[in-house]
Amino acid sequence: MLWQRFRLPLWYDELWRPHFAGEPVGSFWSELGVANAPSSLGSLALVRLCGEVFGWHAWALRLPSAVPLVALAVGTWLLARRLTTRPAALGATLAVTLAGTMVDLASQIKPYTLDAACAVAVVGLWMDSTLPTRRLIRRRVLAGVLAVFSLPALFLIVPLFVHDTARPLWTNRGQLRSRGPRALLGETVRAAGRAAPAVAIGGAHALLFVTHQSGQRASTFWNDHFLADRGPLEAARFVIGQLAATAAGAPPGSDRYDPNLVHPLTDSTDALVVVLGCAVAITFATGAITLARRADGRVLLVAVGGAELMVLAASAWRYWPFGAVRPNTFLVPLLTIVSAVGAATLARSLLARSLLARSLLARSPARARWTRTSAVAKLLIPANLVILLAALAVPVAGATGLKPMWVERADRRPIDLMVDATLTARSLYRPGDLVLVGGRLARAGWLYGMELSQDGAVTTTGTAGSSEPRIPLSATVFLTAIGDGGVDRALSRQAPGPNSHVLMFVLAYDRRGTERALDEARQRGWCPTQTQDFELTGTLRVLARCQPAASDESAGRRGSTS
């Protein structure tokens, strides 16, 4: 199934990433400023490395998403096994890595599985605080390097830095008078210094590289997941609703918003969503109480809680969406591990209460029915059992997302024939022709297909173009809108010669303006002679000089309307 998904042509949500990753060094920085969404330097470098080594093929460019899924499985097992029992750790690992949503993300050119693997690694690196100073600093440096490969890793590093800095003050809070404030301040400064490399590396990457890509703040795509522009009551409802949606995911924190991702079959039944969400909320709260009693457990809790607060703050300034959406996939393994710890705690409690009830019943069957302990046990044992069964169903529910993924494994996706469109354009283009590419979202995908892609055509019409030279960028004009006078302006500035043609591609999302754009072309003396439609992607037209009859008819139409 994965191999078949790997061989599918790149669709819109994937096309733009390899374009920016493969941009020449000279134009990389300026081009990055118009990226659809921010990317880390490391993730772009991995995509480019795979393209240069294995070729710019869809399957090769998806490797930086697929390989981290294996690392995520190993990392989730190791981190969970450190904090809980083997069965609970196995359940957490299976819930994370076999979830349909996670596998779907791993089969696309998206950084979310890499983010999740880096998040587990950062928390794991931060746990051994008793190591010698040099080893501790090396681990913090490595955590900072991971932040160069994963944008949201900084959401974990900052609260962990605060935790390390504040720990000496909290640990020695009763010794302020005996040791003096200067000694405690010195310990605090040293602790901050040991953790500082991670913040410095991750912060520099965010400040110098990521903020250059903040154009997505003007987009409305994530409006439902931004805290921005909400009043106090609406903000409170927003936070509670998103936390509930996070708990109701299978596994917790999985995307429940993107219609282009597969989701668990349980999402279609409100009752099952509520049951699973309540079970996860209870096991998470139990796990948090359990982890708070141990130092390494507190590291995980600080990372999860601090990251949620930082994401919420970022959403208030429209930098990052809050809630159960794909950019927050990095939290999925951490949330799942906390819930797994809670499930293991409830299982031990259930076993202990069952043994206690049996013991009381064996000693005095008549009296055991009336003791307070037995009464509590009779209430809690069934409740614990129900919660555990629901919690155990979470990995199964997540894995049900693999069924729609299997059913849809060969389904077409929006804008997935862009490479075919560029290959067809290459077969039609002759030197001196003008190429017009229309649509607000068309530019990055067209440039990837024209300048980088080495994939063959999916449709028969594009096959001939694979042997033709790529169309020079100087012969291409990109129009952000269709039918607003852009075609008229382009033809007036850069009209082809008398024996040349105009190739006009219009993205599927912008087809409503096509007739107006063709009218603009006719007014300039260019009429369509050939049309090629690419399903779910767009339409490519060849325009030649209008014949006299068509030109006269067009002139008459203009005269009658004037």
What does this 3D model show about the protein?
By secondary structure, this protein is mainly alpha-helical. It contains 25 helices and 5 strands. It has helices spanning 2-7, 12-21, 25-32, 41-54, 58-61, 63-83, 86-97, 100-106, 112-126, 133-149, 153-171, 176-179, 181-210, 232-247, 270-291, 295-316, 332-363, 365-368, 372-399, 402-407, 418-428, 443-451, 486-493, 514-523, 548-561, and strands spanning 434-438, 476-479, 502-507, 526-534, 538-545. Strands 2-1-3-5-4 form a 5-stranded mixed beta sheet, sandwiched between helices. α7 packs parallel to α19 (372-399) and α11 packs antiparallel against α13 (181-210). It is elongated and about 100 Å long.
Largest sheet entry: 5 strands, mixed
Number of helices: 25
Quote the distance from N terminus to C terminus.
Answer: 60 Å
- N-to-C series of helices and strands: HHHHHHHHHHHHHHHHHHHHHEHEHEHEEH
Uncertain ranges: 550-562
**Residues in helix, %:** 55-70%
Shape: elongated
Q: Widest sheet: strand order?
A: 2-1-3-5-4
Tell me the β content: 5-15%
Estimate the mean pLDDT confidence.
89
Radius of gyration: 29 Å
Overall SS class: mainly alpha
Query: Based on DSSP secondary structure assignment, what is the total number of beta strands?
Result: 5
